[in-house]
């Protein structure tokens, strides 16, 4: 979706009423370009449904992702002597070696569901809705201790109605957005 030549055959077709992109945005290097290209493929008034990996889920994984979230997103501008202490504190309490970094390729990009509406708006979308999915009833490392209970609780939570818990307990979310009927 970043390179328009990769879907050149589609450009001669009428614009789509809807576009579904699952597993795309986490693996592009330029999200804005990919979203602009998705917008170009949909008709005015058409919708996109785009899956994102949830960066806020890192707060409940208690692993390398938690460490990276604290160090790279929350405390990135702390003075060096404090960052060293924060890093040591977290390293002693988290499974910082889980999951291991990718051996090849690039790491998937995680998006913050609180920031992603702005990303979609900047790409020309409106009526942007974030829909969390793939709930985790506990830290992922506990799944193997009671796999069926974990699965059953995960499925039951898909209907969780608080409106905010999914922003943290879901490993992914779907963004539904609409291309405006007219250009401003």
Kindly report the CATH topology of the largest domain. Rossmann fold
Please name the fourth-level CATH homologous superfamily of the largest domain.
Vaccinia Virus protein VP39
Q: What is the overall silhouette?
A: globular
> Helicity, in percent?
25-40%
Q: What structural category arises from helix and sheet content? A: alpha/beta
Question: Can you summarize the main beta sheet?
Answer: 5 strands, mixed
* Number of H/I helices: 6
State the end-to-end distance. Answer: 24 Å
- Our estimate of the beta-strand percent is 15-25%
* Annotation, overall tally of beta strands: 5
Give the low-confidence spans.
none
CATH architecture of the largest domain: 3-Layer(aba) Sandwich
Mean pLDDT: 94
Give the tally of structural domains.
2
Textual characterization of the structure:
There is one protein chain. By secondary structure, the chain is of the alpha/beta class. The chain folds into 2 domains: 4-60 and 108-178, 3-Layer(aba) Sandwich (Rossmann fold), CATH 3.40.50.150; 64-98. The protein is built from 6 helices and 5 strands, in the order E-H-E-H-H-E-H-E-H-H-E. The chain is globular. The model has no long low-confidence stretch (mean pLDDT 94).
Q: Mind sketching the topology for me?
A:
Layout lengths: L15 E6 L9 H11 E13 L9 H11 L5 H12 L18 E2 L4 H7 L3 E10 L11 H11 L8 H4 E9 L6
Parallel strand pairs: 1-2, 2-3
Antiparallel strand pairs: 2-5, 4-5
